[in-house]
Amino acid sequence: xxSDRQQLILNAIVDNYIHSAEPVGSRTIxxxxxxxxxxxxxxxxxxxxxELGYLEQPHTSAGRVPSTKGYRFYVDNLIQPQxxxxxxxxxxxxxxxxxxxxxxxxxxxxxxxxxxLTNYTAIVLGPEIFEHRLKHIQIVPLNETQAVAIVVTHTxxxxxxxxxxxxxxxxxxxxxxxxxxxxxxxxxxxWQLKQRVYQEISGEMRRNAEQYEEMLMILDKSLKPExxxxxxxxxxxxxxxxxxxxxxxxxxxxxxxxxxxxLLHLIGMxxxxxxxxxxxxxxxxxxxxxxIITTSYSLGGKPVGMVGILGPTRMEYGKVxxxxxxxxxGLSRMLTSQFEK
Amino acid sequence: xxSDRQQLILNAIVDNYIHSAEPVGSRTIxxxxxxxxxxxxxxxxxxxxxELGYLEQPHTSAGRVPSTKGYRFYVDNLIQPQxxxxxxxxxxxxxxxxxxxxxxxxxxxxxxxxxxLTNYTAIVLGPEIFEHRLKHIQIVPLNETQAVAIVVTHTxxxxxxxxxxxxxxxxxxxxxxxxxxxxxxxxxxxWQLKQRVYQEISGEMRRNAEQYEEMLMILDKSLKPExxxxxxxxxxxxxxxxxxxxxxxxxxxxxxxxxxxxLLHLIGMxxxxxxxxxxxxxxxxxxxxxxIITTSYSLGGKPVGMVGILGPTRMEYGKVxxxxxxxxxGLSRMLTSQFEK
DNA sequence: TGTTAGCACTCATACGTAACGAGTGCTAAA
DNA sequence: TTTAGCACTCGTTACGTATGAGTGCTAACA
Lengths: 341, 341
Known about the structure:
The structure is a homodimer. By secondary structure, chain A is of the alpha+beta class. In chain A, the strands form 3 sheets. A 5-stranded antiparallel β-sheet of chain A has the order 7-3-10-9-8, with helices on both faces. In chain A, a hairpin with an 8-residue loop joins strand 1 and strand 2. Chain A starts with a helix and ends with a helix. Chains A and B meet through strand 4, strand 5, strand 6 and helix 10 of A and strand 4, strand 5, strand 6 and helix 10 of B. Chain A binds a DNA duplex through helix 3.
């Protein structure tokens, strides 16, 4: 375990490096107000910290830079909760105050604001809607072979899907089916829908035995959940960081962010609550010099989506964590109140 | 006007520069098979071409580079139609063959393929749906004050919008309204909808005089067209270009591309048919070293959307133009056949 | 008169050297 | 245990020179 003084110095180094982006030397630290030791003492401690793996030296005559292990210790033990400024709080509150039900929009704005506030890249995973309850289902035939299935949830979210119609199914059959569904399944959470179809509807449907299979197929397709939506904002912010003035590094990162499935990978961490992945801890080479902080937001206690920030390893962890926590809490409250209506 | 030989040489220079990205010297040109003159002769012509404004010299002892005027002449007079390779044709045909009606998806794939084929950034503006005909309209009340309005077109496209309900309007009134709309307005093109509402529906609606205004308000909101969707793919491709190895240049461009409204600006050129905007001809500073080629695709003869390519001024104009033309034609055919069904 | 060979000149780039200075590690004194 | 002092390291910067691609001009040539 690190001594108090070692922790103090490590904290000072990380802190300094986060703001200066330059390797920090012993003299710089010794001049800080919260440090009462000469540069020589600091040098000794730095040497020890390097041996222990918390610091690294780009080259002999340079200052020290935190290693991944150093950042990890900083994040786990040294970070103090940051106060958000009035302006920041204002922006966030404004977001929650907006009376937009359309959750897609809320999520989009969230990503926007998150990126603005932190000056890093924001990644937001839209809320899964399995918890939402069915308000209305509609199947609109377009011609003999195709139809559009539309599902409206009680929160006003609309999913639509183009489906192929099996042969021999006419508009009247579809109408009967839809009426049945609306009568029986309103207010059922989406995740229960398929199951309830089998429980409650299949009996009635089986009367026209020959079309039973086809009907089930239609429903099966109609109720398949939409692919997940990821929102990315401020991807170019990384270019403001001095350590990313290199096109090749930036290219790798931005190419990664262009791919939806990779984005999902990045932000789709299991479990709820705040997670920090620092530098080398990331699997993907392109972002081994980046850190990702994510947290989940929830609806009625269950996590339904994620918000995350991607920035350089040299990230303002304290601030980002505060913003994310505050935001996720607000989003959850907002969603939940909307859900309970 | 340029002499034949001047045109030959200008063509050779542009051609060479497009592929090498280096200022081209007189010797390089004189060695080309299609040129039968010594480097000295070429030098004289080059000097003249520079004086005329078609070429530029980065510095005294460097070769020449085409100016915006030079590219313009090249594009307007010298370009020969390029043949697409089997592989390229294959990819494009595959796109058209896919039986996806959901036009959003088609447009998304289009952008993807365009960027893949050209190695530049693709911007695609989704088809306006004003020409699409109403298949079904539905208003689903969520609670006392809010409802979702859903419009389905005959091509299977679904637009939805959250609307506030005026006081005193109950589910039964809404149902009456919706039934009326579906009975009277099916198969009416969306752009005529509002007008037809006033012509054909207002009479019947006026019976319940007190709610007339409110009803109109609801319809007004429901029928407001969705904001336009722009798809961007391969934004990072610009980083592969040697002249964009500079983070600051790239940053300006990518920041521009991050803004939806700016994208619309870039691609939303008036009129139909192929347009090329070269380097300095662009308004925005960030892309004064880029060229944009766009063309429109149409539905039943009317232009409804745009496809475009953004690349360095030093772009493979011939190839990009061929790909865009071929693609726009195919898209138009696809949409139109779908429209006529 | 148009074309070409020859040559002096220009200028960005690469390279090697030297000076600089930020920062270290070590030693010895407080 | 802490700190002042000092030699040493090594990346960065500055500068002068060599290099070479490419030009413009002149004079000879077809």
